[in-house]
Design goal:
The structure holds two protein chains of two kinds. By secondary structure, chain A is mainly α. Chain A has three helices and no strands. Chain B is an all-alpha fold. Chain B is globular, with a radius of gyration of 23 Å. The chains are: A mainly alpha, B mainly alpha. The interface between A and B is medium-sized, with 32 and 28 residues. Chain A: It is a multi-pass membrane protein.
Chain lengths: 114, 546
């Protein structure tokens, strides 16, 4: 499982970085999305991978913390997802405004040849 | 009771005000303006009160000066804490001081150029105040995102091709930086199992040797995110264009945005890699020094080569954050609190001066016809309806506005170039003195930093004087009309600068206390855990019970 997860994070971030460095604004948006998926998975994995363990402990009595998953990274991921979703949506709006104003989807607002 | 909850007020006040103003129609600008000014003024009052509270701690050895606020009454490492110390209180005052002039200036015309200006402004203040107060790294991320989201909106305020293009670059860079921020935070959590800064400071010396490189990598990735915000050299190419494109009052507020990055680096590096850092002590110090020097160099070259005042002002922002970054590096390497104290004093002065400069740019470059022509032009170009133009306040100054603008400009230049009697000089002298006296680092490094510092002052003087001569002496065009509302904020900022200079001794005493507190991390690192929860505290008002 470690190998699959790390490969997924690696491939997602590699493709994300490649796309972020491209000159078209749509590619940049997709690249940022992929990067944020990679980061979310990464945060998740920082709570250690524990298959089949619940993150919430029962009330009262003695609990053995080793039998439970770390709930904190899961909470962090939720926050990170919401924030990156919102900012990406904002970025899309700006991108469309730029496309409308300049007539091109180049990130600099003009084609390089011009 | 109210007294202890005062710490959270700088976050709640702008939040409530901003949300409340969303309910108002956008045409009720007068009401919105007064609401936001009242909010900013009360933030200033509270911030001053908090400074007094942070100061009364006096001696650093007792934790009196630092107050902690447990959010939701959760005990320290589990819940989020707000921490008020001298540095945080100082930054709160600075934020509120910049906010009021910027709001007044915006009232003169800029707030008409788009919607929800005042709400976004309040959310920006909320993010700034929160970032200064929080004692939790992930909470710091959240407040960074709040201030960034507000700043995206403010940067785009007024629209236009230049702003949208600069805004797009700015958003893309900051989104990428936020992802790095998250990676850094989660690496730190993965190694230490905590996100509380004070708890981290306790744990750092006892991290297992095999985990330490991972922790260092996490902190380094985290600092890349801060360095992007601080405008450190290889990560700062977006900054001049973005700051130049921003509307004048927004640019004035952005002057403190780079300092949030500097603040975060200063806070975390002193806390984690100060003298109590164990094997990690002084981690990254030399990198910070070199980056600071490279940033100053980049800023001064950019300043000399720019043709417009907006770009120059943006480069002087770079110089000031480079200076503080470099000094942070020196302090981290064991240079002692004296230079940090000078740098903090310099930071206050330079933020005020760059803010005033951003407010000056637009009236100075207004060729003729005054604000009405400017508004008509923008409204025309960006397809806004022109009904608003009739509302332009008719309070144009009859007096020779150019003289006033010229004097204000000269004062800003004096400050940024570091000439007496303004705080730039005092701050730089304090830095240079401490750098000469320090023995922890090779003298060559310190001397080259001193050289760059003085050279940056010279470059500022040359570049700004050139623009000043072009605008004020060699300009035969019709004198611009300037509104009283636009000159007053600049004058107010300069009066604050003059006060900073007059009260230099008291302020330096405050900043040196701050610097000593930053070096002696024990009060911060252990104070949180000594803070009792409200639920555990003995009830005072139920005294009748034996």
């Amino acid at each position: 499982m470690e190998i699959i997860l790390s490969a997924a994070i690696g491939i997602l971030s590699a493709s994300g970085i490649w796309l972020v460095l491209r000159p078209r604004s749509f590619q940049v948006v997709i690249g940022l999305c992929l990067l944020s998926y990679a980061v979310n998975l990464f945060i998740f994995s920082m709570g250690r991978l524990t298959p089949g363990a619940p993150p919430i402990m029962p009330k009262g009595g003695f609990v053995d913390p080793t039998r439970y998953a770390d709930p904190l990274p899961q909470a962090l991921v939720l926050t990170a997802i919401v924030i990156s979703f919102a900012t990406t949506a904002l970025f899309l709006v700006v991108m469309i405004a730029s496309r409308g104003m300049t007539g091109t989807d180049h990130v600099d607002g003009k084609e390089r040849s011009q | 009771m109210i007294n202890e909850h005062l710490i959270i007020a700088p976050i709640l006040i702008p939040f409530v005000t901003g949300a409340l103003m969303l309910l108002y129609d956008d045409r009720q600008r007068g009401a919105k303006f007064w609401l936001s000014t009242i909010s900013a003024a009360s933030q200033l009052l509270i911030a001053v009160e908090l400074v007094v509270r942070a100061k009364t701690g006096g001696d650093i050895s007792d934790a009196e000066g630092i107050s902690f606020y447990l959010l939701g009454d959760w005990a320290a490492p589990y819940g989020i804490v707000l921490v008020l110390d001298r540095l945080a209180a100082m930054m709160l005052v600075l934020t509120a001081l910049l906010a009021i002039p910027s709001l007044v200036y915006a009232h003169a015309g800029w707030n008409r150029q788009g919607s929800h200006y005042f709400s976004m402004f309040q959310f920006l203040l909320m993010g700034l105040n929160g970032a200064f107060l929080t004692g939790d790294i992930f909470n710091l991320f959240v407040f960074f995102e709040i201030l960034l989201a507000a700043s995206y909106g403010l940067l785009l305020h007024g629209s236009g091709q230049l702003r949208v293009r600069a805004g797009m670059h700015y958003i893309a860079i900051n989104l990428a930086a936020s992802l790095l921020f998250l990676i850094g935070v989660s690496l730190i959590y993965g190694v230490t199992g905590t996100l509380n800064m004070a708890h981290l400071a306790n744990l750092i010396a006892s991290v297992a040797p095999e985990d330490r490189p991972l922790l260092h990598a996490g902190v380094a990735i985290l600092s890349v995110a801060f360095l992007v915000k601080a405008g450190s050299w290889p990560l700062s190419f977006w900054l001049p264009t973005a700051y130049m494109a921003a509307a004048a009052p927004v640019g004035a507020m952005f002057a403190i945005m780079t300092k949030v990055g500097v603040y975060a680096i200063l806070r975390l590096s002193m806390l984690l890699f100060g003298e109590t850092g164990g094997p990690s002590t002084s981690f990254g110090a030399s990198v910070l020094i070199l980056l600071g020097m490279a940033t100053i160099l980049f800023g001064l070259l950019g300043l000399l080569s720019s043709q417009s005042l907006g770009r120059m002002a943006a480069h002087s922002v770079l110089i000031s954050s480079g200076t503080v970054l470099g000094i942070t590096g020196f302090a981290l390497a064991g240079g002692g609190p004296a230079m940090l104290s000078g740098a903090l004093y310099y930071l206050i002065g330079s933020v005020l001066a760059t803010s005033a400069l951003f407010l000056l740019i637009e009236p100075m470059n207004r060729e003729d016809g005054g604000i009405a022509a400017m508004l008509a032009l923008t409204a025309d170009a960006y397809g806004l309806d022109d009904t608003d133009l009739d509302e332009v306040p008719d309070t144009a100054l009859a007096m020779p506005a150019m003289t006033v603008l010229g004097i204000c400009f000269a004062l800003c230049v004096l400050m940024l170039a570091g000439l007496p009697p303004l705080p730039g000089f005092v701050g730089k002298v304090a830095i240079v003195q401490a750098l000469i006296a320090q023995t922890a680092l090779p003298a060559g490094l310190a001397w080259s930093f001193i050289g760059l510092l003085i050279l940056s002052g010279l470059a500022t003087l040359i570049g700004m004087a050139r623009i000043g001569i072009q605008t004020f002496w060699a300009n035969d065009a019709t004198l611009p009309r300037v509104l009283a509302l636009e000159v007053a904020p600049v004058i107010a900022l300069l009066v604050v600068l003059a006060l900073t200079s007059l009260k230099a001794e008291a302020m330096l005493r405050y900043t040196s206390g701050t610097a000593r507190a930053l070096h002696d991390t024990a009060a911060y690192a252990y104070g949180v855990f000594a803070t009792p929860r409200a639920a555990d505290r003995p009830k005072e008002d139920e005294g009748s019970e034996p």
